[in-house]
Amino acid sequence: MDLIIPTHRIEQRLLSMPPVRALQLRLHHYDGERLHLVAPLAPNINDKANAFGGSLASVMTLAAWALVSVKLEEAGLEADVYVQDSMLRYRHPLYDELTAEAWLAPEQSWEQFLTSFRQRGKARAQMLARICNAAGTECCSLEGRFVALAPRED
Amino acid sequence: MDLIIPTHRIEQRLLSMPPVRALQLRLHHYDGERLHLVAPLAPNINDKANAFGGSLASVMTLAAWALVSVKLEEAGLEADVYVQDSMLRYRHPLYDELTAEAWLAPEQSWEQFLTSFRQRGKARAQMLARICNAAGTECCSLEGRFVALAPRED
Question: What is the rounded distance in angstroms from the CA atom of residue B142 to the CA atom of residue B98?
Fold first, then answer.
C-alpha cells in the first residue's frame, strides 16, 4: 500500500489543473521505475483524425513530471517540479489512446537525485518518455531535463 | 484582403480540434512573416498558478504549424502539415496570457520551401517560436522541424 498514496496524491495534483482535465488524463500504472499515464483519443484528436501533437507533448511531459513527483513524495520530500527543456520526436501518427510511459535516463539513479535534493534543496533528473500505439510501435518520444526545487520559505 | 482568408481558414482548422478549443486559442496577428496566437491563462494554468508546460508547448507548436499552413494556403497549395521534432526550452514561469510568436528560421526562405513543395509534393520548414511575458521577457522557446505533404490520392 506504500506506493498507492503518493501516486494518488500526484494524480489529484494533475487533475487540479484545468488543461490536464481537458486531456482526460489518468494515472494508469506505476511499478516503482516506470510510470504510465493514459488519455483517450477523442478529446485529443487533430484535424487529420490522429492524436494532436500538443496532447502527445503534454502527456509525455506529464508522465515524466509525475514520475519525478512520485519519487519525491515517496521519499517524504516536498518540492516544486518543473520541466526545463525537452526534445520531442514525432515519428508516426497515433490513432489509438495516448499511453505515455516515463522513466529515468539510465545514466542517473533516483538515490543520487534524492541525495542531491536533500543536500542542496535542488536536483535535476534526465527523463525519457514515449508513446507507443496499440501494435507496440513507438509513435513519439521525449528526452527532457526536470528540476525539483524545495519550496521557498517566504 | 488577400491575407485574411487564409488566416481565417487556418483558425477554423485549429478550432476544429477539441484539444485546441480547450486551450481557448485564437489567431491574434499575422503580418506576412510572423504569426501570433494567444490563449488566456485561466484554462492553461498549472498547480503553481502559472502557465502549464503542456499548454506552452502546444501554443508554440500551433503557432509554427499555423504559419506553415497559412503560407501554403496563400500559395493556393493543399497540404497536410506535421511537426517532426522540436526542442523546447522553459526559462521562466509565465503569469500572463500565452502569446506565442512563430517565424521561419533565418537560414530558410518561404520561396525555397514553396518551390520544394511544388516540385516534390513535400517540403520541410525549420521554425522558431517563443512566448514572452507582458514585460517582454522570453519565458519559453521552440525550435522545430515541420513537414508539409501533398494529400495522398487514394
Answer: 14
